[in-house]
Design goal:
heterotrimer; A mainly alpha (about 450); B alpha/beta (about 270); C alpha+beta (about 325); A: mainly alpha; two-stranded antiparallel ribbon; 4 strands; about 75% helix; about 0% strand; C: about 325 residues; alpha+beta; Arc Repressor Mutant, subunit A; SH3 type barrels; 3 domains; 6-stranded antiparallel sheet
């Protein structure tokens, strides 16, 4: 019954509408604002413009042609520097503590009469994966995010979007992509969701597909570690941390450049068109409440890392242990597979072990480095390495890494396919198999391509 | 009835009000409160103050893109709070506006708190006026009044309240100022102790004539519709979602809970 | 043995899949031919005469037997009537054609507003899409666009109940020197001419002033620019008289100097869809004062404006549509 009258009503509406102007929408919004203006004038008095001028002055400096970009780079560099310097010691401490606990637990298990394979799987596999991720990931993240959040709460990020928009415009993308990329530092899945702030669908897809080129939480430590071992080591100790921070900034800038290039290419091929709608609000600056930030982001990040460690790294730890301990014809599975992947790895300046680690790490990029170390060390479990000098010795002397390996691993870490959570999120946000597939395969292809050319170039020239 | 106890926080003015923040642990609730507002008005901060959750906040428009939920207990009643994505309007068809609009229209919250930024009040009123057309049970949280004062913007909240026809509570959410009063007032609005007389939009003659023609026709088919005027406006604008709900006659006004599930966007990303 | 079986099943599956796809494709193609034939008859009838078999053959580029099949199909479906004079649409045939036209024009409007396909491509695209877009989907798109009354060429879009309003205007050549009008229609075929007209910036609703009118061609003023149109091109443009006698605004937001304030007169009709709605929602409505407060160091794009107490950055190619006094 209602159904029919509903349909009649719709017909009625068509009739009434045909008598109205086409810009009904415009009229309604105009009227609402006229009402709003009236109410506003009724109850609001503006006494002075004092604070506003301060905002204006800050804006002038932060977006000035001379200072705008340098300030941005400086802030980014400082954030990384504080992270690298600050995370070193706590990382070591946590690693010592957790690995000591591992030994104790293994001992207890032994005394309880558990078979060695069970102890191995649970303690040297699952627990160790967890311990590794916590010690490597937690300190840098717990430092990086509060610092970054202070910038965010202050209101600086929209200014970055404002400063960078000219580049994004040239790439056929949206300036707010700078904001979603910032979110990508935390987690690419969160970055993908944040693209909802981009109004126009075309530019939103571009932002979704390229978010992966910002190194996330799980990939940062890899970059920081490599930068510390290979780049910082070439500098005198006083400059070492600066050099490490500088090289991480450099990698991030490569990521930004790749983002822009890929955005440009997408907007000229499958996502043809010009940016269709751009509005960006620049909110007033606000004094960040530093204590609250420290508290919330510490809790936030700790929970995040622990959650990932338990649900992603711990199972992966078990898989790694199995790979390293199950033998076929006297060879471990890990060696068999990495041997099989070796030729491919060599072509792109890496090796089979690294590729194997990336396959294991599809659910969680965090465990790439632990996996690599475990296989290299020929130990049946992941190594207890608490000092970077030991690490370097292992990589260079035992595994034959060169600067090329390090550089290409950094590039690969930056470019390769998003983790499974991010891929799932892309699907949820776009509801399209096509974009999900492109979002997963395109970065991987690009990673192979870039590392291939770098490897060939380096081998030819040097 | 469950006994309330007070949770101590430093400088907490809510303590005297028996506020127990429940975080996301709400299984049963007596009332649902929707939290709406422009992007970057401190809406998430209000949400955190109410529920005790530490949802990450940031100073850029659109920080909250997914709907968050939490709860609190106050005076023996449990409230569920739904933090809607920040929007400038409810008229455009962007994803976040649809989420917010659908919840207000179909989710049927018992009350809606609209958080407005006192420093950009005029722009914020655009959304407030639209929400007032959808629902009567509205409380305005006039947030960031400290910042407004510093900028020399003086908002007469009593007069604003009189004009809008709904309670307006000045708040400084970051410091928890005014939150207690906000809860109390919202509760009174839900209980019907405060009767609101929401401002009705004055529209130009042409639109008014069209509305006058259409509203009685809608009311004849759906006599219980609380917001026929808004529905009429949306229909004239060609809002497909509203139109479909009418066409199929599936407008369900009693099953608040199931309607709630329909529009839920359950995404919690880590 | 089992392997062969699996292989066989696999091959059968492939064959079946291919076959159904071909069938589907054929069905679609048949529908396209039928609908194109209907459209031809519609246009002929519209000009006041029945459609003839030979004319149809030439226009659709089909061989005789194929066309006969199609015409028989149409007749048995009750869409056309065949008499000694030629073919005419029945009521239901007419309804179908109007729906096709509606789909074509709505799709063109959508493409013009929300993509940046060049206009000649838009026409081709709509020629294909008109056969797929129907019913609820079409109405939803119509609503999404805010029920546009004309398409980018100025042709009226039929309403859902089949009503087609009449287009007004006279071709450019008939206008006198010194007269001024608003473009009401730009012919979509022949495509090269249409492309040329659009590429030179002419759009429906633009103001055009006739400076000189000769048999070979005409000199017109459009957007403060003097342009020459040869007679053939001019025949593809129609003008209608300007209703309102207001002075056209000259300045847009882009013309504001830093820290200068202006008042919005209106947002150009050329800016449509999402971009327009977003601007309105942010308070860029007629009558509101807007102040240029922050200019990007990179070519002044984007620029931030203060509107209703908020600071909003816009790009130049959007700000150029906002007229101020």
């Amino acid at each position: 019954m209602e159904n029919k009258s509903g349909k009649d009503l719709i017909r009625e509406i068509h009739h009434i509408r045909s008598g109205l102007d086409t810009n009904f929408r415009d009229m309604v919004v105009e009227d609402i604002y006229k009402n709003a203006e009236q109410i506003y004038n009724h109850s609001v008095k503006v006494l002075s413009d004092r604070k506003y001028n301060l905002d204006q002055k800050l804006d002038r400096i932060l977006t000035s042609p001379v200072w705008g970009l340098p300030i941005m780079l400086l802030l980014l560099g400082m954030t990384f520097w504080i992270t690298i310097v600050g995370a070193n010691y706590p990382s070591e401490l946590i690693a010592r503590g957790l690995f000591w606990l591992e030994a104790q637990m293994a001992l207890i298990m032994q005394q309880l009469g558990s078979p060695s394979w069970l102890t191995g799987f649970l303690i040297h596999g699952v627990y160790k994966g967890l311990a590794w991720v916590v010690s490597v990931m937690l300190p840098p993240m717990a430092i990086f995010f509060p610092v970054f959040t202070i910038l965010e709460d202050f209101g600086y990020l929209p200014r970055v979007a404002f400063n960078m928009d000219w580049l994004f415009r040239k790439a056929g993308a949206h300036g707010k992509q700078a904001l979603t990329m910032s979110m990508g530092f935390g987690c690419n899945a969160a970055g993908v969701i944040a693209t909802r702030i981009i109004e126009s669908p075309r530019e939103r897809i571009i932002a979704i597909l390229t978010n992966n080129f910002v190194p996330c939480n799980g990939r940062f430590p890899t970059l920081i570690m490599l930068a510390t071992i290979f780049v910082a080591a070439a500098f005198p100790p006083t400059l070492a941390s600066l050099a490490a921070a500088g090289s991480v900034v450099f990698v991030v800038l490569i990521g930004v450049a790749v983002t822009l290039i890929v955005s440009w290419a997408l907007s000229r091929t499958i996502l043809k068109g010009e940016a269709s709608s751009f509005t960006l609000e620049l909110p007033p600056y606000r004094k960040p409440s530093i204590l609250r930030i420290l508290y919330t982001s510490l809790i936030d990040r700790t929970l995040f890392v622990l959650w990932r460690a338990i649900f992603m790294a711990a199972p992966a730890g078990g898989v790694i242990w199995l790979l390293a301990n199950v033998t076929v014809n006297g060879q471990t599975l890990a060696h068999l597979i990495s041997g099989f992947l070796n030729p491919l790895g060599h072509v792109i300046g890496l090796d089979g072990t690294i590729l194997l680690a990336y396959i294991v790490a599809i659910p969680a990029n965090e465990i790439v480095v632990p996996t690599i170390l475990m296989i290299y060390s020929h130990a049946s479990t992941m190594l207890d390495i608490t000092q970077l000098s030991q690490l370097k010795a292992l990589l260079v002397d035992n595994a034959g890494w060169t600067l090329l390996t390090a550089v290409n691993l950094m590039l690969f870490a930056l470019l390769h396919n998003p983790c499974s959570t991010t891929i799932l999120t892309i699907w949820k946000e776009t509801r399209s198999m096509r974009w999900t597939l492109i979002g997963a395969v395109m970065p991987l292809g690009l990673a192979f391509l870039v590392t291939f050319f770098v490897a060939q170039f380096v081998r030819l020239v040097f | 009835m469950k006994k309330n106890y007070t949770k101590h926080r430093s400088g907490c003015e809510d303590c005297a009000l028996n506020l127990e923040q429940l975080g996301i642990e709400v299984r049963k609730w007596d009332h649902v409160i929707a939290l709406a507002g422009n992007p970057n008005t401190g809406k998430s901060t209000v949400f955190n103050q109410l529920t005790g959750l530490k949802q990450h906040t940031g100073n850029w428009p659109g920080k909250t893109v997914v709907r968050a939920e939490g709860g609190f207990t106050w005076n023996g009643k449990t409230f569920k709070v739904v933090d809607l994505p920040g929007t400038y309007s409810l008229l455009s068809a962007s994803v976040d506006e649809e989420v917010a609009r659908d919840f207000l229209l179909f989710g049927q919250p018992d009350a809606t708190i609209v958080v407005v930024d006192a420093t950009v009040l005029e722009r914020n009123l655009n959304l407030v006026l639209q929400i007032l057309e959808i629902t009567d049970k509205v409380v305005v949280s006039l947030n960031l009044v400290d910042e407004a004062r510093r900028k020399g913007i003086d908002v007469d909240h009593r007069r604003l309240s009189k004009d809008l026809g709904v309670p307006v509570i000045p708040t400084v959410a970051r410091e928890g100022i005014g939150i207690g009063q906000l809860i109390e007032t919202t509760d009174q609005v839900i209980a019907g102790e405060i009767i609101t007389h929401p401002y009705r939009l004055k529209v130009n003659r042409k639109i008014q004539e069209a509305l006058d023609e259409l509203i009685p026709k809608i009311k004849r088919i759906f006599p219980d519709l609380p917001n026929a005027r808004w529905i009429a406006m949306r229909l004239l604008d060609g809002d497909i979602r509203v139109q479909k709900a009418l066409e199929r006659g599936e407008w369900n006004f009693t099953a608040g809970a199931s309607a709630l599930d329909n529009v839920q966007v359950k995404e919690k990303v880590h | 043995m089992i392997y062969y079986l699996i292989l066989l099943i696999f091959i059968l599956f492939i064959v079946w899949w291919y076959w159904t796809r071909e069938r589907e494709h054929e069905r679609k193609l048949k529908r396209v031919y039928q609908e194109d034939a209907l459209k031809y008859i519609f246009h002929q009838n519209d000009h006041g005469h029945p459609a003839l078999f030979d004319g149809m053959k030439g226009s659709l580029g089909m061989n005789g037997t194929h066309l006969t099949h199609i015409i028989n199909d149409l007749q048995s479906r009750g869409l056309i009537r065949i008499s000694e004079q030629g073919m005419e649409l029945t009521e239901s045939g007419r309804k179908l054609v109007i729906e096709i036209v509606r789909a074509h024009r709505i799709w063109e409007t959508f493409l013009q507003r929300e993509t940046d396909l060049p206009l000649d491509k838009i026409h081709d695209h709509a020629d294909r899409k008109e056969h797929e877009l129907r019913g609820e989907k079409l109405n939803a798109l119509d609503a999404h666009l805010g029920f546009p009354k004309i398409d980018p060429h100025g042709d009226p879009i039929p309403t859902e109940d089949g009503h087609v309003s009449v287009r007004e205007g006279r071709v450019l050549n008939e206008w006198q020197e010194g007269q001024e009008g608003r473009i009401s229609h730009i012919e979509d075929e022949p495509v090269p001419l249409a492309r040329d007209i659009f590429n030179r910036g002419f759009r429906v609703n633009d103001r055009v002033k006739i400076l000189k009118n000769t048999d070979q061609g005409m000199q017109v003023e459009h957007n403060d620019k003097s342009q020459y149109l040869d007679a053939l091109t001019a025949m593809n443009i129609q003008l209608q008289p300007i209703e309102r006698k207001e002075v056209p605004p000259k300045r847009t937001l882009n013309d504001l100097k830093p820290a200068e304030q202006g008042r919005i007169i209106y947002i150009s009709e050329r800016l449509q869809g999402l971009a327009r709605r977003r601007l309105l929602d942010l308070g860029f409505t007629p009558g509101v004062p807007v102040k240029k407060v922050l200019v990007s160091s990179f070519g002044g794009d984007p620029t931030a404006y203060e509107v209703r107490g908020a600071k909003i950055a816009l790009r130049k190619d959007q700000a150029k549509y906002i007229y101020i006094n």
